[in-house]
Amino acid sequence: MKALVYTANHQVTYRDEPDPLPADGSVVLRIDAVGICGSDMHAYHGHDPRRVPPMILGHEFAGTIVAGPGRGKRVTGNPIVACGVCDYCHEGRNNLCANRTMIGMQLPGAFAEHMAIPAAALVDIPQEMDARTAALTEPAATALHALNLSMRAMHRPVQEGRALVIGGGAIGMLCAILLKAYGCRDVRVAETNPLRRASVEKHADCAAFDPREGGARAPASGSTHFVVDAVGSVHTRKAALDAVRAGGTIMHIGLQDWASEIDMRKLTLAEVTLLGTYTYSTADLRAAVAALHGGTFGNLAWVEERPLAEGARAFEDLDLGRTAAAKIVLRPH
């Protein structure tokens, strides 16, 4: 089969790879669509020691079962392969499984014509669902999980306050769209790429601004009830804590930088709630499928499609900010 393989830092290569063979309890999928995630970009930059080349990356996928139970059925799946027996799995929090492995990390991913996956990890989709839409299930579930977790911690409903999303990539875009769908009227997005700012304003119906320049659209210091850091850098963590108001909530999703100092004095004296989130549960994935299919996330016109064979150029364009697309979905067939 053909696959796009992460072979070295800043290098992915479209080449022949062995066809996957289903182990006991697994199926083989024909990959119909697969999205490039920010974590794939971290690997591409050499910033993720868990993803070691040569490796087939890719964990945002939709496919069709071609070998194993359910042949012919269209599905997506949970790329987190949980053990099913630890305390977290029994609690339904399989994203925190103590023994988890992951498609596109320890296991070969979906940037390929075919991929093996445990049947237990499959998530049903409506059989008429568009493959591009279904491939957005994983990032949509990340946004949904993060916002639902945040709303349980908020002093007042999210609809009553002002929200700031830092980062106009796919997770930031999906969070902004979901906040609007939840009824939050004042949603602003900080994004340095002018192409993405224009896309956010067009497709998420939010005010976007360049955080390096500020301006009238930038929220005043200490004025925002809810902040989503969808980047996770030293600078964005500082910006999130500066923007949040006393008693507000910060949701930290992005993982660009491993560590940084934050203003713990403000966090304490202003009684700010700081939350972290990691991926989603299988229940979140199912809810994301329903939300995507039902139109909660809009028409996804901001998503760009390209052939898998042109994947190397897609990685380069994302790396260099040459595309307005917050998400590029690759088509292997």
Number of domains: 2
Largest sheet, in brief, is: 7 strands, mixed
Query: Structural class of the helix and strand makeup?
Result: alpha/beta
Helix content: 25-40%
Strand content: 25-35%
DSSP E strands, number = 18
SSE pattern, N- to C-terminal:
EEEHEEEEHEEEHHEHEHEEHEHEHEHE
CATH class of the largest domain: Alpha Beta
pLDDT averaged residue by residue:
96
- What's the CATH superfamily of the largest domain, by name? Medium-chain alcohol dehydrogenases, catalytic domain
Distance between the termini: 11 Å
Shape: globular
Contiguous low-pLDDT stretches (5 residues minimum) are none
Count of individual helical segments? 10
Taking Cα atoms only, what radius of gyration do you get, to the nearest Å? 19 Å
CATH architecture of the largest domain: Alpha-Beta Complex
CATH topology title of the largest domain: Quinone Oxidoreductase, Chain A, domain 1
